[in-house]
Write a structure and sequence with these properties.
Elements: H1 17-25, H2 31-40, H3 44-51, H4 58-70, H5 76-86, H6 93-104, H7 112-124, H8 130-139, H9 144-148, H10 155-162, H11 167-175, H12 181-186, H13 193-201, H14 207-213, H15 219-234
Length: 235
């Protein structure tokens, strides 16, 4: 492994940004040197290079986040760095919480696009823990869609999601092709039109539920149920 910062004759602040960017990209650089750069340099390109370096640790990512959040003004390019950290395989549970809280805060000066992108990347990151996903779900039920698209989310977690009395969450569960029949049955009496509409179009919905939906008060739900039953009869 190469030593850069601590072995360099010149102090880190005397190294030009372009050189630092190339150093931060080097796959042979020591993690300790990456940490030194992260602690002392605020530049979107350099920080982005650190985030994507294979020797970057969760601790270093946390330093990068702290460096960015401490800045009074966040540019679009700095927000991109936070978005990439939210999608990183090195995302720790504590860092996921920190990023979500920052995205939800009005005090961080993040753009709406940046805030939304950070949250989406956290919810879709297969390394995000269920504890974090559950916290996000209760704070932002609309994120159920992205959580259900997370490949690490299993049936047990979907069942836990369904236990929440929330129409928005139920509607996304009803549309998810990974939702098993027993959960679809459990939410089939939901009073939210979109939930019943999605149930009628989900291939996992049992035939008996589709038959019940033929008598739904909403014409659109009845039509979807009719189409689904007709397609099953033709198989």
């Amino acid at each position: 492994m190469k030593r850069y910062i601590k072995s360099a004759i010149e102090p880190i602040e005397d190294i030009d940004l372009e050189s630092l960017k190339e150093i931060a990209r080097d796959p042979d650089i020591l993690s300790s040197d990456l940490k030194g750069i992260a602690e002392n340099i605020f530049d979107a390109d350099v920080l982005n290079a650190i985030v994507h370096n294979p020797n970057t640790t969760p601790e270093i990512l946390s330093i990068v986040v702290d460096t960015i959040l401490a800045a009074p003004r966040k540019t679009m390019y700095v927000e991109f760095v936070l978005e990439d950290i939210a999608a990183s395989e090195n995302l720790s549970e504590s860092l996921a919480y920190k990023l979500f809280d920052a995205a939800m805060s009005n005090d961080q000066g993040l753009s709406d696009y940046g805030r939304n992108s950070i949250i989406i990347n956290i919810t879709r990151n297969p390394n995000t823990t269920e504890s974090v996903l559950w916290h996000i779900l209760k704070e932002e039920p609309w994120e159920a869609h992205n959580i259900l698209n997370n490949p690490s989310v299993g049936v047990d977690f979907i069942r836990k999601m369904a236990s929440l009395n929330n129409n928005t969450i139920h509607s996304y569960i009803a549309a998810c092709p990974r939702t098993p029949a027993d959960i679809l049955i459990a939410i089939s009496s939901d009073d939210y039109y979109t939930t019943r509409s999605n149930l009628a179009r989900n291939p996992n919905t049992p035939t008996e539920i589709l038959q019940e939906l033929l008598n739904d008060e909403e014409p659109g739900v009845r039509t979807f149920a009719e189409d689904a039953l007709r397609n099953r009869d033709s198989l």
